Amino acid sequence: MNPILRPQTLCFALVLAACGQRDPRYGLSMATLPPVAAGSALFYVQPALDRAVVVDTGTTDPTVRSVALGTGAALAVPRAAHAEALVLSRGERGSDGVDPAPASLAAVTATGTARRWTLDAPFTALSQSDDGRWALATFDPHAVSERLLFNPNELALVDLDAAPSATNPVVRTVRSFGGVPQRVVFSPAMVVAGERRVLAVVLSDAYVTLLDLAHPDRSEVTVRLTLPEDTRAIAPSQVLFDVENATIYLRADASNDLYVMRLVQVTPASATSEDFRPALNQLAAGTHPSDMALTGTAAARRVLVVSPGSQDARLLDTVANTSTVLPLSAPANHILLFGADATAPATTALLYGTNGVASAVSFVALTDLAARRSLNVETLQLGRTIGDALPLPERKVVLFSHPSGTTGSLSLLDLSQRTAAPIYSEASLGGARFDGDRQTVWVAPDGLQRLGYIDLDGFRPGEVRLDAAATDVVALGGAARRVAALHAGAEGWFTLIDGAQPTRAHARSVRGFLLEGLLDEGAQ
Fold first, then answer.
1. Whole-number Å distance between alpha carbons of 400 and 178
2. Tell me, what's the pLDDT at 135?
3. Is 161 in the same domain as 205?
4. CB 466 within 8 A of CB 485
5. What CATH number should be reported for the domain holding residue 166?
6. Does one domain contain both 180 and 276?
7. Is residue 147 over pLDDT 80?
8. Which of 26, 194, 211, 348 has the greatest number of C-beta atoms within 10 Å?
9. Alpha-carbon span 178 to 322, nearest angstrom
10. Same domain membership, residue 80 and residue 142
11. What one-character DSSP code corresponds to residue 228?
12. What is the mean pLDDT of the chain?
């Protein structure tokens, strides 16, 4: 393994010993938020130092840059579909000798630049559209506020493709019926009321809120899922979008129905009112459905539903509002649709149960399913109870984990051949990660100085010996198939591994980069 030490690593201790007067920055914590990978770079955010250390691995000798951030960095995530990291900072309340500072959202690049949007509130959660254009900052209902007063229904919509301005971000407070936002789901672009637009669906305890991102100045649309006198918190948990029919499907915990919202055009009541409204319908889906998937054509849309407490599936006809029961040999709580290849329409559904509910899976052919019913169902016995699953439909593979103590703690299910191969493992599936091109599964066992992998082309397992135990493994973008095994250490440490040549001889240890520029007068 080839070590790469940053130059400040050695001089740091010498400077500390030589200085007669202690710099106050020595007392600041060097702890980082969980590192994130975006493109070929790793982003380490140090909240106490108000900076991000960016390690760009796209060069032979990794380049290290320091980027100034807003005060109180609390969350760092990769920006969807972009080689950037998004950092949400909560600002500073102010105290004796400490000035208040606003909350902010920063988009940090691997080249050491950052765009920053000022926020009006110390938000704790961030959601993004799939194309990475829109970010919605909200309050995590389970996070500590660290503020005397705040409104949990306040949110900020940021257009990440536009510069900060008086209208970017858009800050607003959505109406509430006693609940608070729990999660946000973004729709794909679809034509609503004759115009192509993206919607943000805000899920609350017993209602959903629709925000039109094409017209952020318009009022939100709120849809109650229970009657006013019904006090149930049914907790919306899954959202699907029928783009061709401009329809939203919603599944909720503690409800036996699916909610169907067809978005129809209306004449707006005012300039700030929306020009569409949801026409709400409910479909009976069995007892506490746990997953759903859309099948069929736009003119004959169907919803396939599974429930863990029932050994059957249901096919719901959204046009005729009828239900077809599909008997299964094993209960299922998840659905995976797949076709002949990654671009082909889905022709088959894999129904499987996790968390110990089943030891078999069902393949369901979707063609003429309502007429053929059980004739379209094929069962595959795995011989071991399924604990967890890691699906990879574009490579026609699903990786299952099984309870410890069973023979072969992992199974690789080949969707094309409908066969399952046992893999012996010392690690759980909880630490498994895919590389950038999703060709290899990597596993970092807790406390072991080894990184395991499975090549999905030939189902060949292997391992790489490390110099220290890995705390996690993250995939890096770019042309090369590389992953970084992260190690504990205040100075910053990871091992860079070539996925095409996953051997210790081709691995590089990068260490000491968090000390880069630490003694400068400020992050550049």
1. 40
2. 98
3. no
4. yes
5. 2.130.10.10
6. yes
7. no
8. 211
9. 34
10. yes
11. T
12. 90
Rg (CA), the chain: 26
Residues 165 and 39 in one domain: yes
Could you tell me the residue range of the domain that residue 500 belongs to? 7-30+431-524
Q: 28: which 2 tokens?
A: 């600041």
User: In this structure, what is the dihedral angle of CA atoms 341, 343, 345, 348, given to the nearest 10 degrees?
Assistant: 30
Give 437-462 as a DSSP string.
TS-EEEE--TT-SEEEEEETTTTEEE
Domain count, the chain: 4
In a domain, 476, yes or no: yes
Ramachandran angles phi, psi of 268, nearest 5°? -65, 145
Instruction: Report H helices in 198-264.
Output: none
Question: Which residues have CB under 8 Å from 350's CB, separation 6+?
Answer: 335, 336, 337, 338, 361, 362, 363, 364, 398, 413, 415
244-248 average pLDDT score: 98
Please tell me whether residues 393 and 359 are part of one structural domain. yes
Exposed/middle/buried for 396, CB within 10 Å: 0-12, 13-18, 19+? Answer: middle
Whether 395 contacts 439, CB under 8 Å: yes
Q: How far apart are CA 449 and CA 200, in angstroms?
A: 43
pTM higher than the cut 0.90: yes
Same domain for 151 and 38, yes or no, is yes
| Torsion sign (Cα): 182, 184, 185, 190 | positive
Q: Indicate whether 41 and 76 sit together in one domain.
A: yes
- Distance between CA atoms of 246 and 258, rounded to whole angstroms? 16
Two tokens at 478?
Answer: 């770019």
Q: How far apart are CA 11 and CA 159, in angstroms?
A: 43
* pLDDT score at 13: 42
Calculate what percentage of the chain has a pLDDT beyond 70. 92
Cis amide linkage into residue 102, ω under 30° from 0:
no
Cβ(446)–Cβ(455) under 8 Å?
Answer: no
**140 in any annotated domain:** yes
Tokens of 196: 């192509």
* Beta strand pairing call for 419-423 and 472-476: unpaired
CB 478 within 8 A of CB 40: yes
133 inside domain: yes
Q: Give Cβ neighbours of residue 269 (< 8 Å, ≥ 6 apart).
A: none
CA 191 – CA 363 distance, rounded (Å): 34
Question: Do 403 and 496 fall within a single domain?
Answer: no
Sheet of strand 276-284, all strands in order from the earlier edge strand to the far edge: 236-242, 247-252, 257-265, 276-284
Residues 391 and 336: beta-carbon distance below 8 Å: yes
Are residues 311 and 342 in contact, defined by beta-carbon separation less than 8 angstroms? no
What strands, in cross-sheet order, belong to the sheet with 450-455? 432-434, 440-443, 450-455, 460-465
